[in-house]
Each structure stands twice: as C-alpha cells, then as structure tokens.
Amino acid sequence: MKIDPDIEGMKSISPMYKMRMQEKRNLIGRRGTTPDHIINEAASKFYVTVEEILGSSRIGAAVRARHWAIHEMKKRTGWSAVDIGDYMGRDHTTVLWVIKKMECLKNSTREIEGMH
Questions:
Q1: 3-state secondary structure (DSSP) of residue 12
Q2: What pLDDT tens digit does each residue of the chain (116 aa) get?
Q3: Which of 1, 61, 75, 67 is nearest to 36 (CA)?
Q4: Kind and range of the H or E run holding 49
Q5: Residue pair 87/37 in contact by the 8 Å Cβ criterion
Q6: Architecture of domain 7-115
C-alpha cells in the first residue's frame, strides 16, 4: 500500500508546513530508501496496515511496527528526530525515546545471544 495522506485536506496546518511535508515525502534517504518504502516494509513485516503504523493504535503489532519504522528511518535516511516526528505525526521527543529504546533492545538481545 502506498502512503498518500491528504496533505491538502489539513485545514488547521499552515501552507508553509504543508509544503515542507510534501518536500519531505519526495526526499530519498541514504542508499535510495524513501520513508514511504520503510513504512510499507514495516507494514508487511509486522502484518499491520500503514494506517495503523501512522495512526494512534496501541495494538502490540502496530506499536512494534511503528517503533521499527522510526528506528529504520533514522538509520537508513539520516533524518533528524524532528523530521521523522513530522513525517510520522509524532513529537521529536517520542522519536528520540523510540530510538533509544530500540538501541537498548538491540544491545540486550546481543548480550542474551552471547550467553548461549
């Protein structure tokens, strides 16, 4: 599923913000990866919809997919937390928290795997 939110339908958002978001959608990150591609990859990997990832769903699979997508966007596009937050409809502090959480999970998984 391709992401195509109705940026024009956002009445309470300034025209400058709408233009900036549209420009971000067209950016390509490092290695030719777009944020849309990462969101679609997360939806497929975690068996959820794009709408669940971008929405406010607190269902476990949607949250894991959202966190994975945020972490991958930071890693693969090099975007700032503010840019990722704007793109995902989240505050930049939420993005920073997710990235920190995912790094901790990755490190603890490596430690557990090293014990066997």
A1: coil
A2: 444 444 444 455 566 666 666 666 666 555 567 889 999 999 999 999 999 999 999 999 999 999 999 999 999 988 899 999 999 999 999 999 999 999 999 888 876 666 55
A3: 1
A4: none
A5: no
A6: Orthogonal Bundle (1.10)
Q: What does the alpha-carbon distance between residue 36 and residue 114 come to, in Å, rounded to a whole number?
A: 35
Residues in the chain: 116
Residue 53: name the closest of 34, 36, 32 by CA.
Answer: 36
The model's pTM is: 0.72
CA-to-CA separations, 8 to 2, 12, 14, 50, 85, in angstroms, rounded: 17, 10, 10, 19, 19
Which tokens sit at 106? 């990755």
**Residue appearing with tokens 């959820």:** 48
Amino acid letter for position 105:
L
CA atoms within 13 Å, Cβ hemisphere of 68: 20
